[in-house]
Amino acid sequence: VSLALVVLAAFAAWRLADGGREPAVAVPSAEMHTPRPAAPPATPDQRASVQPAEPVTAPATLPVVAVVAAGDIVDPAIEDATRLFMRHLVDTMARFDDLLVVKTPGAMPRPEDGADYVLTLNTVRAGDRVEGFVRLSAAKDGRIVWTTSGERSLAAVSDGAELRELAQRLAIRLAQPFGILHADLRLATLPPAISCIYQALNVRRHMKAEDHLAARNCLDALVARDPEFHPAWSHLALLTVDEYVSGLNARSGSPLDRALAAAVNAVRLAPTSARANQAMMEAQFLRGMTEEALKSGHAAMTRNPYDPDIMADLGARYVQLGRAEEGLPLLERAVALSDGRPSWYDAFLYLAAYLTGANKLADNQAALLKAEETPIALVARAVASAAAGDRVDLDEARRRLGQVEPLFALDARLYLARKGFSQAVSDRILAAMGQAGLPPP
Fold it and tell me: Measured on CA atoms in the order 380, 386, 388, 390, is the torsion positive or negative?
């Protein structure tokens, strides 16, 4: 079994529609489009040294989770419900590109069978109620990673639509980029390929230069060793976008060209990959290829309508384009689904609420950003502080933003343009921050 996306299961409740038919996506050309403002040339001391990456000695693989039903189920109704639940769980998890769904309805798998994690589902009938118990454990040593339980009426578990919702809710909670499985893997000693992917995901959480460089070096070595491993190309494209947008570890040459090339590789290797299409959206958007970018974003959503990171990314693009009313529901859903989310989800949800006049939601989001210091969170925090009349926190947010993003202190409008904000939205943000009229903090 080739190793890729992972699986899990549990009882919870949430509603999501099926992804629908997957449209064909062509890899577009960058011709006849106006790129975003170019980055100033990097001086020698600003350029990231091309450090030798650690050698990748093993084939590129990703974690495997085996999903099994524990014990003998003698009740036909419960057996049918369990089978249907597991099928929806596996089908949902197959949409995530960073894991491989493995279903093993037989005996408990052993580590030598290739599973990294085992998710066991145990169902017990008590009168007209059904109790479900779920345990996620490490296959190698049996360490219990996570457990949950739930209870439903027999009528509820006999309802195919409700079972599907339960399976989808659990799949999202465990397998999303910043979910339960990710949290466990983040603390583990991982094989090279898995380590590269999770390092790259963690860059999106904190946006630290040292994390970015380590993840990029890791991915460079991985694609050199295994150029057919499409998840590496997707994450390399996303990291290269960060190189341009935030000036992280700038290398010579055009980061926009390199980001698009990596995204093209990912899409060509895996046309139905949601993450590859997300990477394509990012690369296209910063080249000014707005319609193509939105098309790629919607293709990513169609392929995996359960991934909060894709929802938030597409929603953020709508906010930057001045179409916040279209981005708001995507960002609201992404935030609701992702407890371990990066702060930029909340920052863009604040901006969407602020720009659409959803004042109560904006106030709630502003409270979550008070202690955040990632660049986009500082932008949202400054706007929120200005809106609340808090001059002290406004000055502090502007001061910190100028420290972590020197371009903001030099030319705030160019800085926002580099981030992808349209002129109209940049004008509203800068006017709200008082950047045009206030003296530097």
Answer: positive
**Which phi and psi (to 5°) does residue 118 adopt?**
-125, 125
Residues 353, 386: contact at Cβ < 8 Å?
no
The 3-state DSSP class for residue 427 equals helix
Span 402-423, pLDDT tens digits: 999 999 999 999 999 999 999 9
The SS3 call for residue 124 is strand
Alpha-carbon gap, residue 177 to 232, rounded angstroms: 15
DSSP secondary structure, 238-263, as one string: HHHHHHHHH-TT--SS-HHHHHHHHH
Contacts of residue 41, Cβ cutoff 8 Å, sequence gap at least 6 = none
Residue 309, CA distances (Å) to 334, 343, 346 in order: 7, 12, 12
pTM score above 0.90: no
Task: Give CA 53 to chain center in angstroms.
Answer: 25
Alpha carbon distance 109, 34 (integer Å): 54
- 73: pLDDT confidence band, cut at 50, 70 and 90? low
For position 105, what pLDDT does the model report? 53
220-228: average pLDDT: 93
